[in-house]
Predict the structure of Bifunctional inositol-1 monophosphatase/fructose-1,6-bisphosphatase.
Amino acid sequence: MRDDFYHASCGEGAYLNRRRIAPPPDARLADSIVILESGAIKRNDPLSRYALEHCLSARVVGSTAILTGIIAGGRAAAFISVRQMPWGIVPAIAILGELNIHITQHDGSPMSLLQGENCLIAQEQVHQEMLR
């Protein structure tokens, strides 16, 4: 990922190094890698607990920019954060939104982007499973 450059244009797709990216294939939670923010584990977040119990494997990543590339490339199906700041999530919304990746609060409601709030980024099927 060191020399990778991701960008997106509204309605025109997401790109990696000037090449259009196809949306990653949808997967079930049981077959997926989930990325967690360390704060979600420390706070014993219910959504994080559910993901850890039902996913194939989990990773902890501290950078929204890095996880955006990981999810865009299909190497993970979801990210859970308990305090996502607007400046960190807006680029993910621009890029991952073009790839049909859902970005919501833990209850499925839209993010306000006005303050730090919990965040679930996931492929469609995984998003639906985690909100049950």
Observations:
- Residues 82 and 118 are 4 Å apart (CA to CA).
- The first strand starts at residue 6 and ends at 9.
